[in-house]
Design goal:
This protein is α+β, with helices and mostly antiparallel strands and 334 residues long. The protein has 8 helices and 13 strands.
Length: 334
């Protein structure tokens, strides 16, 4: 990975985010490739080109949350290596996660405005090619937003609702260069965790994945709305993992769209990145028997040879739509 290029890319994406937040649309467009692709949460999904990006995503978001401000908890970049065979396409990405804070003043995605302050969880990864953003993967935690607006579209979470903190060491905004050996170690560890750990589940014993080899007993796992946060490995297994694997026992992570690491932080996106069969009840929904795809985006913090914190996005609206359930249907009727 070219450290100098990574630094240039981070500066470009940082400027892109700041100009978006300021509403400086004229200066944003030159930062975007004419054929850029934007992948976002259901029901928006995919947009092509700067005009669709602005009209289909950013302007409606600002209309609904006019005083929107981006709070970044994490920011880093790197070259992608997200394939199961150990290779990558070498494209350069910059990503991060945090909160969009603002007052919910006008309806968004058919969700009635509450008129109250909200914090929208976001995770985003931007590909930079030839000095422009060419592709974006972003997920917003819409179920958590619905909860803040007063709508419960899923059963009560087994984990803890409303918890989405910055990294505990508060040192995750990597505007400066990071140690290349540390970055390589982080990328190697996350690849082994995904493809040599999670993907070797024997559909019977949680221990077959060796998660304890990668998560310490006091792992802090921050799940999306509908799932909730888990304090420690035991809670992670009892409140989330065993229920997820009961519902999707044959789930397998595919080649990811991107997987990058810098310093102690790593992140990756997989739109349809996990394939599975819906074989068991999940969050009140009986098994459908359908073959489904899970869209997710994760960030991890490494200490030594373990991941001590994990921030997780799952596109729950898209997941349940594949079950045949529209989570926004009840909201639209109010």
């Amino acid at each position: 990975m070219s450290i100098e290029l990574n630094q240039d890319n981070k500066q470009l994406v940082w400027d892109f985010w700041k100009k978006l937040e300021a509403g400086d649309i004229e200066s944003v467009v030159p930062l975007l490739a004419p054929d850029m692709i934007w992948h976002g949460p259901d029901p928006i999904n995919c947009l092509n080109g700067p005009a669709e990006f602005m009209d289909g995503y950013w302007r409606p978001l600002l209309k609904s949350f006019p005083d929107l401000r981006r709070i970044s908890h994490m920011f880093f970049g790197g070259a992608s290596n997200g394939r199961a065979d150990g290779t990558g396409d070498g494209r350069m990405w910059v990503g991060g996660t945090g909160l969009f804070n603002g007052v919910f003043q006008n309806d968004w995605l058919s969700i009635p405005a509450s008129g109250k302050p909200v914090s929208i969880r976001w995770g985003e990864l931007c590909c930079v090619e030839d000095g422009r953003v060419s592709e974006i993967f972003i997920l917003l935690d819409i179920v958590d937003l619905l909860q803040q607006a007063g709508f419960e579209v899923l059963p009560p979470a087994r984990g803890k609702d409303g918890i989405w903190p910055a990294p505990s060491n508060d040192q995750a905004i990597y505007l400066d260069e990071q140690d290349e050996a540390e970055s390589s170690h982080t990328l190697d560890l996350i690849r082994r965790f995904i493809y040599e750990g999670l993907n070797v589940y024997d559909q019977a014993d949680l221990g077959s994945m060796g998660v304890a080899d990668y998560f310490p007993p006091d792992i802090q796992w921050f799940g999306p709305g509908g799932i909730g946060a888990c304090d420690g490995l035991s809670e992670f297994e009892d409140l989330h993992q065993k229920h997820w694997l009961h519902a999707f026992p044959d789930r397998a992570v595919q080649d990811l769209d991107n997987l990058i690491a810098e310093g102690a932080y790593t992140g990756g996106a997989g739109f349809n990145g996990v394939l599975a069969t819906h074989k068991g009840q999940y969050l009140g929904c009986p098994a459908s028997g359908k073959r489904i795809a899970v869209t997710g985006l994760d960030f991890w913090r490494r200490e030594g040879d373990k991941f001590t914190e994990n921030w997780v996005f799952v596109d729950m609206l898209y997941l349940f739509r594949q079950f045949g359930i529209d989570l926004l249907a009840g909201v639209r009727s109010k």
